[in-house]
Amino acid sequence: MTPATLELAFRAASVALLLVLATSLLADFRNVPAGRLGAAFALGSAAHAVSYSLDVTSRVPLGLAPLIALSTGNIVVFWLFTRSLFDDEFRLRWWHGCIWALVTAFSFAGCVWIAPNGHVRLSVRLVDLIVLAFIALAVGQTIASWRADLVERRRSARVFIVCATALYGGLNAVLQITVAGYHVGDVAEAINAGVLACTVAAITYAMMRVDGADLFPAAAEPAPPIVFSQPAADDAADQKLVDALMRLMADERVYRQENITIGALATRLKIPEYRLRRLINQRLGYRNFNVFLNNHRIEEAKAALADPAQAEVPVITIAMDAGFQSLGPFNRAFKAVTGVTPTEYRRVRVRSA
């Protein structure tokens, strides 16, 4: 088998796997932002598998330009996909689509205008620098939000998906910047296609090993209730720890502390971090540590906003007293829980008092 034939086989395998993955996600999780973004990312990756080449030395065939543009824009989808994986409250905004459109349009312009005018290396390097920037954003937000994830079964799978994609995409971007304008040969292209096929297979396998309702939270079908199979002694010990945790929340109001972490809270309770994560998830029903903290902060803020004696206290003061660091996150979290803004909530409650 020649290198060119092997490369074609690897590309076909990648496309087939990605199309199956996209179809599965749309069938089971089309109502979930993370599911839709995962399907879009799989389809964009299929465009990448068809069109990507390390050997960029001249004008790109016009028929491949749209696929190359979609492949480049897929890095924005990857960034959004990683955000939705680690944030159950994530919602798509109009400006997300604008960023995707700008990156895609720039890549298309590079294929049909910048590169054909004798600037192949410039076009390739600019596009790959954009790719590296979004990979850095995705990895950074993964590192920042990983510890707040309370669902143990999905934490490792999510990190693997992000890291495998980032490693492949980052190495390819660096390689393409390095060899832009030079012929690399069929063997190098076959190796690259083989690495892509292995990466796609590994990510697909990792996603199959995790329950879909864990990986993509707000699935149309509710998750089954948690069944505890622990011995009675362990069950009672867990309840004591939950009681101690709730006393820290109610009496000491530790949620007010700046940058409070699950590790610091576990230290206060003198238990391992993984055990506290399991308790908050399985006993209290939270999937994210920040949501757990914010719900306590919002309950305090609701009481203050409903108090006629605090009617003249600015909303931002109430928000910061409860533990929020700025007004924007407080407003978003408050409306997500209550359905109204803090100002509207205060007006209704004070009027009815």
Summarize the structure.
Helices cover 73% and strands 0% of the residues. It has helices at 3-29, 33-51, 65-86, 94-114, 120-145, 152-179, 186-208, 212-215, 232-252, 262-269, 273-283, 289-305, 315-322, 327-338, 342-352.
Q: Layout of helices and strands, plus pairs?
A:
Elements: H1 3-29, H2 33-51, H3 65-86, H4 94-114, H5 120-145, H6 152-179, H7 186-208, H8 212-215, H9 232-252, H10 262-269, H11 273-283, H12 289-305, H13 315-322, H14 327-338, H15 342-352
How does this model look, in words?
The chain is mostly helical and 353 residues long. 73% of the residues lie in helices and 0% in strands. The chain is built from 15 helices and no strands. It has helices spanning 3-29, 33-51, 65-86, 94-114, 120-145, 152-179, 186-208, 212-215, 232-252, 262-269, 273-283, 289-305, 315-322, 327-338, 342-352. Helix 5 (120-145) runs antiparallel to helix 6 (152-179). The chain is elongated and about 75 Å long. The termini are far apart. Residues 219-231 have low confidence and may be disordered.
Which structural class matches the secondary elements? mainly alpha
**Parts with pLDDT < 50 across at least 5 consecutive residues:** 219-231
Give the SSE order as H and E letters: HHHHHHHHHHHHHHH
Distance between the termini: 81 Å
Portion in strands: under 5%
* Mean pLDDT figure: 87
Largest β sheet strand count, sense and barrel closure = none
What is the subunit arrangement here? single chain
Q: What value does the Rg take, in angstroms?
A: 25 Å
Number of strands: 0
> What is the count of DSSP helices, taking H or I runs of 4+ residues?
15
The percent of residues in helical segments reads over 70%
